[in-house]
């Protein structure tokens, strides 16, 4: 199906665009009252993820309500460990919790390498339904957690500021860590390829906990697995978002990813000077900037566009939308990116 708006894909591939495309991490979520209305009818987040018709509905909401240039499938990075036999619970005000963790050879042996078409069929069906409903209006983004971030949850068992339990394995049992990372990488690659087959036009790897690693550790335990995934996926553009890993940009230039996502602590102008036109950049407004008055938001957009330029750039936040953000401010941000970038 030909896309009516293919700005995101053209920008990702380094092709000329008439204005900068814009979408937002966590755009399908709690910032929208329409999302909360759907969520309140269900037992919780996981039921919504596993109900394809409703996942498709909330995926499309931001396209209609915020005017973004792409949809991103409503799902969770933790569906991969669950498919591997490591289920999770979503605890209110606490976040994800894994009753069974992977901390020994015996734990690793209990894991399975699933047929993702079966084990994650609900995500793939949500993608197919979303593509049908979008009818070519905008591209659909698929995603997965990067292997090290998934490793963190599977070993730690829950969110953490330090992930000291997970990092301990890197030092005490590096061989075991690499075996687990290898297994996660194989499943993640198959999962992303299945998303593409179902209709995803671009895929993003979220390395949410990249910033807890030293450069040496990242190059040993994270980057090789990201590189493998990028090399395996040639069908659509790939975005890598390694939050907090400022030092890794030169290494990402040597991977097969097309887009590098930046968090808000990174200097966009400096990274552009470093990257040039070799890769497309994505980001990186501080999500808290959307609490500001509209006049200030306009200035922030002008600064972003000045730093990044019009070509090989995708406007976004440096992390996901916060749930108490006023949707009107989000719409204004999107509108300003469109209006101001068209004049460049």
- Strand coverage percent: 5-15%
Q: What level of helicity do the residues show?
A: 40-55%
SSE pattern, N- to C-terminal = HHHHEHEEHHHEHHHEHHEHEHEHEH
Strand order of the largest sheet: 1-4-5-6-7-8-9
Sheet of most strands: 7 strands, parallel
**Could you name the ranges where pLDDT drops below 50 across 5 or more consecutive residues?**
none
Cα shape: globular
Cα end-to-end separation: 30 Å
- From the helix content, strand content and strand pairing, which structural class follows? alpha/beta
Number of strands: 9
Q: DSSP helix count? A: 17
On the 0 to 100 scale, the average pLDDT is 97
Rg for CA atoms: 19 Å
Short recap of the structure:
The protein has 344 residues and is an alpha/beta fold.
List the SSEs and their pairings.
Elements: H1 7-13, H2 33-39, H3 45-49, H4 52-65, E1 71-72, H5 79-83, E2 89-91, E3 95-97, H6 105-110, H7 116-119, H8 121-134, E4 140-145, H9 147-156, H10 164-172, H11 174-198, E5 202-207, H12 215-221, H13 223-232, E6 238-242, H14 249-252, E7 259-261, H15 268-275, E8 280-285, H16 294-308, E9 313-317, H17 327-342
Parallel strand pairs: 1-4, 4-5, 5-6, 6-7, 7-8, 8-9
Antiparallel strand pairs: 2-3
Helix pairs in contact: 4-8, 9-10, 9-11, 10-11, 11-13, 15-16, 16-17
